[in-house]
Amino acid sequence: MTGFALFAAFPPPSIWEMPVDPSTMPPIPFMPTLQPFPVIVDHSYIFALTLNLLMVMSRVLVVGSGAGGATVGMELAKRGVDVTILEAGGYPKIGTEMRALGMYTGGMFGPGEFSRDGVEILRTVMVGGSSFVTLGNGVRSLQGELLGFGIDLEDEFVEAESELGITPCPVENLGPRTRLLMGASEELGFEMKPMPKFIDFTRCKGCGKCVLGCVSGAKWTSRNSVGEAFRYGAKLLMNHKVLNVLHGDGEVRGVRVSTPDGVKELEADRVVLSAGGLGTPVILQRSGLEAGSNLYGDLFVDTFGLVKGADFGSELGMAALVDEFHESDGFIMSPMVEGPLDLLTNRMPLGRKMTALRGGQLIGLMTKIKDEATGVVDADGGFTKPVGTVDREKVDKGYEKSRLLLEAAGAEPGSIFRTHIRGAHPGGTAGIGRVVDGGLETGVSGLYVCDCSVLPEAPGKPPVLTLVALGKYLGKQMAGL
Ligand SMILES: Cc1cc2nc3c(=O)[nH]c(=O)nc-3n(C[C@H](O)[C@H](O)[C@H](O)COP(=O)(O)OP(=O)(O)OC[C@H]3O[C@@H](n4cnc5c(N)ncnc54)[C@H](O)[C@@H]3O)c2cc1C
Can you give the residue range of the structural domain that contains 351? Predict the structure, then answer.
């Protein structure tokens, strides 16, 4: 039996569980996957513990606690590596749209940040990153493309699907709007199927507020993995914003980080950047390394219409999926209705905004496209995200099909409108084959990247499952498995 297997079989007792200064440990509000630490009666754990301590190989700093970072951190900590996760954000309160506005990075002008060319990109800076505000959609993406770079994620996908409890949305959790649109799809000959979700449907209340943070704890977020990493001794330092990487002679030495107590330098043997598609390229450039081009966003528009006389309640968003146009036309469609604040902050005429007040009659579909990776993130965090003719054609095709579906579902033709173009999956800015190699390592030895920025092209689909698989892959590689 290897040391790793022994450690997994005989984890040390709870006194060893958190070898960190308690003042650096924030409360974990909800960790559905956390199990009580097993009580060990077999003394062989002492042998396993000794092995584990011998295996505290090196100090690894993981920058960011989103899907990519938290997974690498968890996988390394599980294998006895000394890991500290540095997170720029904290644990904001959740549950209302106003609170959610504080979590998103848009500031005064919207939930999202705007590119210089006016495209809005949504993300959150907090423990859990954007995984905290997902709709729980869990599909495989870019598996073949990553294999082309020598990254075979089959085993990691299987592991991740099991750990995240991915299951197609059960029929009884499909809300009335979704059912109406599924009926319309059948009529028009489109295949609309239940969306695979990382949601525990025994807890889901169908409130439709996933994007504000799940108050019932039904949805998997990377906070679960942070909690798991904790259990194995990892540390989490919140409100620690990494400014740049310290390196010399081609080797990583640590990071410079802004903390509530001032700017500090932290040493490390290895560093994993997981600050997201907009965050990681900024850190790389401020470290004198090339990054930032090839930004994509998986751009989307929502198309809405009003069904006269209807009085729909709340329901789970994106509970179903049409993906038959992904290969041929580069877009997917999914039933979606936004909350009033989201509609009110959307860039559309006042008359349209007022439809937000008639939310009970509103039905909608999201069109998400696989956009061209033509944006650029600068060292100051500003970015461009041009929407060229090819992308506009994809959006228009999706809009036309959505329109047909909405009409078939009973929406008044004159009431149908679409929102402005946004994106919620920024990535590509430290791509494999350009900025990192097939081992996700940069040109600086010991400096890795694991988040959306390494993806070689826009998935055009929800990326979290792929990021979790990639995090597992890198964690295993770094631990020498
Ligand atoms: C509203 C919304 C709904 C979505 N729904 C889905 C869905 O249903 N399914 C799906 O698969 N995807 C969904 N996505 C996309 C998905 O959430 C993201 O693509 C994914 O979580 C990105 O993970 P990441 O690890 O690349 O980066 P992030 O999640 O952005 O993580 C980066 C982390 O780094 C931290 N950070 C940033 N800068 C620094 C710094 N300088 N120093 C230290 N820490 C830093 C951030 O706070 C964050 O915790 C959604 C996104 C949004 C916005």
Answer: 169-214+299-378+395-422
Q: Look at residue 215 in the predicted model and tell me its pLDDT.
A: 94
Q: Are residues 206 and 224 in the same domain?
A: no
Instruction: Identify which of 87, 134, 161, 273 to mutate to test ligand 1's pocket (most ligand atoms within 8 A of the CB).
Output: 134
Compute the distance from residue 191 Cα to the ligand 1 centre, in Å: 29
Looking at the domain assignment, is residue 16 inside a domain?
Answer: no
Nearest protein Cα to ligand 1, atom 27: 276
Contacts with 182 (C-beta within 8 Å, 6 or more apart), sequence order = 174, 192, 320
- CA–CA gap between residue 155 and residue 456 (Å, rounded): 20
pLDDT tens-digit profile of 422-432?
999 999 999 99
Q: Is the CB of 274 under 6 A from ligand 1?
A: yes
pTM of the model: 0.89
444 and 463 in a single domain? The answer is: yes
Reading the block at residue 289, the tokens are 């390394």
The one-letter code for the residue type at 203 is R
Q: What is the pLDDT of residue 7?
A: 34
Spatial contact of 182 and 210, defined as CB atoms under 8 Å apart: no
In the chain, DSSP finds a helix count (H) and a strand count (E) of: 14, 21
**Are residue 358 and residue 233 in the same domain, yes or no?**
no
DSSP-derived secondary structure for 8-68: HHSPPPGGGT--S-GGG-------TT--PPPPP--THHHHHHHHHHHT---EEEEE--SHH
Give mean pLDDT, residues 400-418: 96
Angle between helices 389-408 and 176-188 (to 10 degrees): 100
